[in-house]
Write a structure and sequence with these properties.
By secondary structure, this protein is mainly alpha-helical. The chain has 16 helices and no strands.
Length: 431
């Protein structure tokens, strides 16, 4: 599928995913309350970081392996399944030891489900990387949509039948992720030619493939720490209820990233195959479209952001409304950053991706330690916005130096862009 139609199809899928995810988040937040939401946000942040560490950057490694090196997809699936099994074994042992020695009062079921969800999320990311590396955009869209819809469906049923508790929510998460993994593996297996899968083939070259994803592991891991630092820092500084407030504001603000995230992943796969001048022009065009999109979203949301949050989540999350408005400029900046950074990711994660993310993380942690004691959670949100805007500026300067493009080619939407969007939508409808 060509880049334009692939984007149009993915955008339609993402709209459905966004609706499902927002509804799921609203039901969970209302059902658990601010304190329960704070614990859920802590659980989710731990899963996100743990799953990424456990996967060792193999989402990006698998994209690069299939798109750039032509490694057989079924072989990568087999490795991913073995990898996921090892993750489950190790995570279960660590979780059990932690429960017995550090915090016996924590629900044993939640501790066990942490290991299960973590391993399933790691496996899901690895297999989706194979889909994307093959440019099977339809599969990549459908398996993500499956997870979102199943999660929403199970949460709705649980809320109606027994109410929501943290234990029920994490069980629903596990069921949804398992459905996504099953769909993704089935798609890869059925859409690729038969390949002999000897045990020696699975092990041979695996270390080299892990090495391919190591830079991705560092760069994306640092970025993940950057975007989730508030959840981990604010609990000891301000308490779990404030974690619940800022998690709601953060997750809602991060919907600004969804369309840029679509483009970023498609660009990543495209650059991995070919980083020539035409691809550079696609990156620039995508950046211009995202700038237009997030600028419009900012103008719309800044005046009504607090009302949106309290309408969706209830008056218990009034503070989250203020935080949402403060976070919006930074999340808009990071949305544009996702497009530009995908170019560097597709080129194998050069050093700028690593030291840029690490510098932003250090600045964010340092400023939080200075600002939060004086200004509380609003100060943390303001720090986040400033750091994200600084990271965007760094990547823009580096992209211009690397490609020779001008700033206007990255930021000013033009009539040719509008014509391109219309052609892409038309091709997606007919194709």
């Amino acid at each position: 599928m060509r880049f334009g139609p692939a984007f149009a199809q993915t955008l339609a899928s993402q709209v459905l995913q966004s609706i499902a995810s927002i509804l799921t988040g609203v039901l969970i937040a209302r059902g658990l309350g601010p304190v329960g939401q704070g614990w859920y946000a802590t659980f989710a942040a731990g899963v996100a970081l743990g799953a990424f560490i456990a996967s060792l950057g193999q989402f990006h490694g698998n994209v690069l392996a299939v798109a750039g090196s032509g490694v057989p997809p079924r072989l990568l699936v087999a490795r991913s399944v073995v990898h996921g099994g090892l993750v489950l074994t190790i995570a279960s042992a660590i979780a059990l030891l932690w429960h017995l020695t550090v915090n016996p009062s924590t629900s044993a079921f939640v501790v066990a489900m942490f290991a299960v969800v973590l391993s399933l999320e790691a496996l899901a990311e690895m297999v989706r990387g194979i889909n994307l590396g093959q440019h099977h955009v339809t599969a990549w869209n459908l398996v993500s949509l499956t997870q979102r819809l199943v999660y929403l469906g199970v949460v709705v049923i649980l809320r109606a039948k027994v109410g929501l508790r943290l234990e029920y929510v994490v069980l629903a998460w596990a069921i949804a992720t398992l459905s996504s993994v099953s769909a993704s593996v089935t798609w890869v297996w059925r859409r690729t030619s038969t390949e002999p899968l000897r045990l020696s083939a699975i092990w041979s070259g695996w270390g080299r493939r892990l090495g391919t994803g190591f830079r991705a592991f560092l760069a994306v891991g640092l970025t993940l720490l950057l975007v989730r630092a508030d959840v981990w820092m604010l609990r000891p500084l301000l308490g779990v209820a404030w974690v619940g407030q800022i998690s709601v504001a953060t997750y809602l603000a991060e919907w600004m990233w969804y369309v840029p995230g679509i483009l970023g992943n498609l660009i990543f796969a495209t650059v991995a195959s070919n980083s020539g001048p035409e691809t550079v022009r696609k990156v620039a065009r995508s950046a211009r479209m995202v700038v237009l999109l997030v600028s419009g979203a900012l103008l719309f949301l800044l005046p009504i952001g607090q009302w949106v949050v309290t309408t969706l989540y209830g008056r218990a999350y009034a503070q989250a409304g203020t935080l949402f408005v403060v976070l919006l400029p930074g999340t808009a900046a990071l949305a544009v950053h996702l497009i530009i950074d995908s170019y560097f990711a597709g080129r194998g994660f050069p050093p700028i991706t690593i030291w840029g993310a690490s510098s932003a993380l250090i600045v964010k942690v340092g400023l939080n330690l200075l600002v939060v004691p004086a200004f509380g959670v609003v100060g943390a949100a303001a720090v986040t916005s400033v750091v994200y805007m600084g990271l965007l500026l760094l990547k823009v300067v580096w992209f211009i130096r690397t490609t020779g493009l001008s700033p206007s080619e990255l930021f000013l939407f033009n009539l040719s862009d509008l014509a391109y969007v219309m052609r892409s939508v038309g091709m997606a409808r007919t194709g």
